[in-house]
Amino acid sequence: EVEVDAVCDGEVVLIPGIMEHIERAGVHSGDSIAVYPAQDLGADEAATIVEHTMAIGRALGVKGLMNIQFVVMPPSAAPSRVYVLEVNPRASRTVPFISKVTGVPLVRLAVEVMLGRSLSGLGYQSGLWPTQHLVAVKAPVFSMSKLAGVDSFLGPEMKSTGEVMGVDYTYSAALAKALLAAGLTLPPQGAVLVSIADRDKVESRPIIHQLAELGYRLFATEGTAAMIESSGLAVTQISKKLSQDYPTVVDIIREGRVDGVINTLTHDQVPLRDGFQIRRAATERRIPCFTSLDTARATVAALANSRFPFSVLPLREYLGGKVKGTA
User: Fold this and answer.
1) Which of 115, 5, 12 shows the shortest CA–CA distance to 65?
2) pTM given for the model
3) Deepest in the core among 119, 122, 150, 200, taking most CB within 10 A?
């Protein structure tokens, strides 16, 4: 999934930047990790997104802010790869984020436009603002531990209560900063509990292999443990049936024997109930619990790259001193 914020005066449509979500469509954009500039878009795809944004802004006669979310399909999806998911003729939660990391004062410009001034008169023109020589990552923050009975799985309903931003000159460094600030990072060494739905097992293998290569101890529920063993990795099998003898998955989480949980959802009633207990125990223990393999993959990659140093500078230095205003 990809999204853009733009400001339009009815004719001129200014797009500060294109943000790519780490999570695929299906996870609410407010609960997704967004990356600027987009890391995996081709030039043709970016051009199509800009073209669609300008056409929609002009056709709707937007005077102010708007947010558009796109789905970019894999190369096998023909003939078109870029689809409009939704258009919101209003400000979005990403406006402060994209304003800070591009230096484009979106809110000030939107107010000027709504008061009758043109973007061209303010010195701006249609199209995509020049890409900055930095990488910024927006990560969601959750308050699940304060909300009794709430399931932490990510889906189309927004559950985050805030967000943080990591900025650096490389994607891995910016991602590491954002995950650290959001409380989603894993320690350099430790253990993780893995319970993967059957449909996700093949996709999860590289993530689990990388965790093992990093020296992580693996705990897994029955079916996932069998898959891990078949890959030649060491794993400790733990029962997810809470009626079984000690220890169960909830026991090892509550006792602090694991530092994170990867648990993707199945829609069968009993496994869904057991999965809720796993996710709830992780939430109450305040350890990262990943229900999206996309988020888990990014986090493990950040962990693998954490040995590389990141910079700590004022935002204006990342922008090269070109900040024109603030949001």
Assistant:
1) 5
2) 0.85
3) 119
- Taking the alpha carbons at both ends of the chain, their separation in whole angstroms is 24
Q: What is the pLDDT of residue 161?
A: 75
* DSSP result, 81-123: -EEEEEEESS--TTHHHHHHHH---HHHHHHHHHTT--TTTTT
Please give the C-alpha separations between residue 308 and each of 37, 40, 298, 303, 305, in angstroms, as whole numbers. Answer: 21, 22, 16, 10, 6
CB of 31 within 8 A of CB of 158?
yes
Condensed to tens digits (0 to 9), the pLDDT of residues 189-203 reads 899 999 999 999 999
Angle at 91 between CA 173 and CA 175, to 5 degrees: 10
CB 170 within 8 A of CB 135: yes
- Pairing of the two strands 2-9 and 18-21: antiparallel
Helix, strand or coil, per DSSP, at residue 239: strand
CA distances (Å), 28 to each of 2, 23, 101, 317, in order?
12, 9, 22, 32
Query: Helical H runs in the chain?
Result: 43-60, 95-102, 106-114, 171-182, 201-213, 222-230, 249-254, 269-285, 293-304, 315-318
Q: Is the pLDDT of residue 233 over 70?
A: yes
Do strands 289-290 and 260-263 pair parallel, antiparallel, or not at all (unpaired)? parallel
